Here is the input.
Amino acid sequence: MGTHPDRSTALLTDRYELTMLHATLADGRASRRSVFEMFTRRLSGGRRYGVVAGTGRILEAIADFRFGDDEVRFLRDSGVIDATTAAWLADFRFGGDIWGYPEGELYFPGSPVLVVEGTFAECVVLETMVLSILNHDSAIATAGARMIASAGDRPCIEMGSRRTHEDAAVAAARAAYIAGFAATSNLEAGRTYGIPTTGTAAHAFTLVHDTEREAFEAQIAALGSDTTLLVDTYDIAEGVRNAIAAGGTGLGAVRLDSGDLAQVAAEVRAQLDGLGATSTRITVTSDLDEHAIAALAVAPIDGYGVGTSLVTGSGVPTSGFVYKLVAREDDGGTMVPVAKKSKDKISVGGRKYAVRRRENDVATAEVIGIGEPPATDHDDRELLVPLVRDGVLQDLGTLGDARARRHAALHELPATGLRLSKGDPAIPTQYEER
Amino acid sequence: MGTHPDRSTALLTDRYELTMLHATLADGRASRRSVFEMFTRRLSGGRRYGVVAGTGRILEAIADFRFGDDEVRFLRDSGVIDATTAAWLADFRFGGDIWGYPEGELYFPGSPVLVVEGTFAECVVLETMVLSILNHDSAIATAGARMIASAGDRPCIEMGSRRTHEDAAVAAARAAYIAGFAATSNLEAGRTYGIPTTGTAAHAFTLVHDTEREAFEAQIAALGSDTTLLVDTYDIAEGVRNAIAAGGTGLGAVRLDSGDLAQVAAEVRAQLDGLGATSTRITVTSDLDEHAIAALAVAPIDGYGVGTSLVTGSGVPTSGFVYKLVAREDDGGTMVPVAKKSKDKISVGGRKYAVRRRENDVATAEVIGIGEPPATDHDDRELLVPLVRDGVLQDLGTLGDARARRHAALHELPATGLRLSKGDPAIPTQYEER
Here is the structure.
């Protein structure tokens, strides 16, 4: 199920995918068996690891990637394709194989996160769409995982919908959930993906009432005393008094959205305790990122709401994945490795296989076999799983499985791999060619 | 017309909008006449101006903002709303008034880019969605306008779809077109918004062929000799020779996607001229942003393709717009200004009006009247236009109109306002309260 079930995804693509299709259908190269791989050349922003997210959305999008009458007519009318290509597209259905890192798994430079095999034609037309999804969703999941690591046992809530494109917001909530966020503010993410949703009130709610006390009483009447009251519309100390007066010492939580959060949280904790509201929680929001969360570790805070920096990737808004042809058939039917020969954009030709090498349950390297699987005389964990076989989507498990996978994979890293500071990847990438 | 016409947009929102609705329907405040305004507190990243984009998409999204059976059932089943709220939502249709800056117009700190007036209930439920759209689209348009200013007379093409969420990509192409981009690679943007699309071939196209020469001949056979050949898969000088051998001296263009673009472009220009291909253009792509484009001004380049940095806002991926209640009815029916009193998040209460003040056709200030229009004894240009009247969408003109508006508004700025460096807004914001 996606957010817009009736729409073909086939035009969510760059025009050149279809002009390449057109030209290779004409000269016969369209049918050459090909392997495309998706990988990053580096981890942008000095990140120590990346978190894979979006694979499940890619499979949904491939299922909806059909060229109906409307799509074909548009392409013909705008001169993008010829009649032969139009006929090919009308029958198009991806019939190849896809392997990939499952969602929640970590990736490093060169990791073959998606391996797509089929004819050149059926693989090339997917390029733009699969890149869009993986580049976006993995950027959010990676930023989110850093925040979760900073937050320790304190729950984090995704609330960035208003800071990103309205549909990207739904995907961002999904990626954040994979990263370990406890809930989202986004209702469509709740409907589409079953992610828990939360939300209580904004400053406007207080301001539309004649007094803060009246607003708090109205919220408690509607949502019960376990709700979270936003106490910083006017004066925070007065807001806390009004909150406990309205909700009693059993009030669920208060939320702070401005000021020096560490200092204010300490003052509010003391005030709540003094009023007898010792179990009333304090949640904070206001331009938080992984660094701000880390700096608040010693403050008496019970949960974080994160918006802008999460949905914009906290400085790395896109993951840098590319989708490259690494092998294709020759006239004799033999698969040959291929690669662009640019100095500044290195690609390694040949089909890849990947394992995470471990010693004493600690990851030591991302080992990538070129042309065949790496030697397996170590405590290696296989990373590529079948996602599509002969065009048939495989079962990927639940988002809960992806959350658990992310948790386990992060805790397998050497301790230095969890650092927030910029630096080298947590483990090196090693290529093996037997 | 949108990219997914059959989908309600009503759940593209934060849960708290609906809990606020629920609580105010219960205590009667939902019906208070209210004014919400969308503005930014600052221009992030030291930008000199912002470019408004997304207004047209907001109006489409409001038209689709209906709570059908599926939406209401989800909200009831998840405990977000009660029966009274469910009944209200089933009948919901925005019936208020909206004024706003038209697309392509510039904005500055405090500019009331959208002014929404109606009952508290009907205004508050729109908050998340309108913020999502304007925050995203304006970030792209602002980055794009800086690139266009750097490119001078050379055309720029938007080709960032693969670097952002697949639906955000369509909106990004639209925003870039408003900013002055000549075309997009994104086919759905072509279909949905009528934006010109372009695209020829990637490195994979060359690699799937046995030789570069064979690939170029196939492309020319399919697309004609006015096409653009990508010449950097192997050796660039050899690629240029192959390109002219295949396409003749009337070849449309060659594309460079790697290396030191200034140096390589100079070498390729000399080689093309030496081969007699004096009218063959050179287009460049490869991690360009406004600064890289400015640095290439003296290189013999005929056009730019921009991807990552455009669709991610070139360092400013979201615009920082907030949506704040600034006035609401009291029990006597009088509209009273309201504002949050936080030290670090300043809001100015009261309904705003805005003009761009000019002297000798040069903009000198963004003048914002509080509660009533600014005094008009100057060469002022009105900035707010009616977008919705009593729930009826107004005609906003075409994307071409928005492009022309952006062009005119930028050229009205003082010369220092077009600087790429970080600094103060191009013109100051002045509040007037008579």
